[in-house]
Recover the amino acids of this structure.
């Protein structure tokens, strides 16, 4: 590796520059996404504050490019599959249980995608961590939450909300993701006094809203499992989710 490349690798992007990049790039552009991947996969990366949850806990984001895994990593399609740093989100999965029992396990949801809402695309699964104490948010201990933060964008490639999604394929001690979370042990934020269980919720309209000193609430909360699928490019250079039969 050349000296200038090593220097760039070791020089972190500033938190504000990273926020600006994530808020303003065209996610349909392979070049723009590539620059963002380079920024968040440097050896030294800044973490981003989220704020305090109204039901308890202080949270931050550790940026990354490949934080979530789809249920079918290699689906059959005649279109060009996008890198897994961009995934489709199918919120139209119909649970097989009645609504009063939807907080069941992920394996009880249908895996048949509905393409009627194929513009729901999420990019970059950044890790969400919970602060263990209130003493020093800069130097204290942070613990994983099991959730990832993603930028949602539509067919025009523009960012359209910041969402939190539960990671149903968590990394094991070797970095693998072969085991899917089952049973009732999913979808709860640590320190949440309400013990609300959900797979996906809206965190903010825009990423610059995320900061310490801010108390946030979760909206558009889904208490049943969503389905993550691979994303593909259309002939119009837009990104949509792949259809799973």
């Amino acid at each position: 590796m050349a000296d200038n490349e090593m220097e760039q690798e070791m020089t972190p992007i500033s938190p504000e520059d990273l926020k600006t990049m994530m808020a303003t790039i065209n996610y349909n552009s392979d070049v723009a996404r590539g620059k963002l991947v380079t920024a968040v996969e440097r050896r030294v990366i800044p973490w981003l504050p989220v704020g305090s949850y109204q039901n308890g806990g202080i949270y931050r984001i550790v940026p990354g490019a490949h934080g979530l895994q789809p249920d079918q990593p290699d689906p059959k399609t005649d279109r060009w599959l996008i890198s897994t740093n961009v995934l489709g989100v199918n919120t139209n999965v119909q649970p097989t249980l009645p609504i009063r029992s939807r907080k069941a396990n992920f394996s009880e949801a249908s895996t048949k995608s509905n393409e009627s809402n194929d513009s729901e695309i999420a990019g970059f699964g950044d890790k969400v961590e919970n602060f263990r104490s209130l003493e020093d948010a800069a130097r204290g201990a942070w613990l994983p939450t099991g959730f990832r933060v993603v930028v949602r964008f539509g067919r025009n490639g523009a960012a359209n909300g910041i969402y939190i999604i539960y990671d149903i394929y968590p990394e094991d001690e070797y970095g693998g993701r072969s085991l899917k979370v089952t049973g009732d042990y999913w979808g709860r934020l640590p320190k949440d006094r309400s013990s609300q269980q959900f797979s996906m919720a809206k965190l903010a309209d825009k990423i610059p809203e995320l900061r310490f000193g801010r108390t946030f609430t979760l909206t558009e909360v889904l208490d049943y499992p969503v389905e993550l699928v691979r994303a593909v490019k259309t002939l119009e250079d837009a990104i949509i989710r792949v259809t799973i039969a």
